[in-house]
Amino acid sequence: MTTTLQTTIEADPTVPAIRITREFDAPPSAVFRAHVDPVLVVQWLGPRRLTMTVQHWDARTGGGYRYTHVGEDGTEHHFLGSFHEIRPDERIVQTFAYVPFADQVALETMTFTELPGGRCRLEGFSLCGSFEGRDAMLASGMDEGVVQGYERLDEVLS
Where does the record place the Activator of Hsp90 ATPase homologue 1/2-like C-terminal domain (predicted)? Predict the structure, then answer.
């Protein structure tokens, strides 16, 4: 089954949070695996114009991660976080920080819901430390990375 897949990115007006919703033509187990297996993660996370390398990836409750995105001009973007909860095929709770702004740590919850036809709805909720931090994240071009990343994830899952 092929559908038109759109990514919805919304800023919550009442709390400094971002909600991201996307459906995939794959079961929750496959979408979840693509989020915890570093071999798969490097194939889809982020915009197409950046190359990802993983320095550390321990996707288990209490684990953590650190990775770098490198642009065509050699510019490096470093990210890190901790996995608070990994519940296979259902939920990931983690922190997320862009190293130059590591004081702005977001708490992210991703929920994987089974849909009819072997499909999955992924709902992400990122709670930022302030409205200013949230708005800076939104203004950074994160939407390009999220939308292109999920398009790349569709390719990995096909």
Answer: 25-157
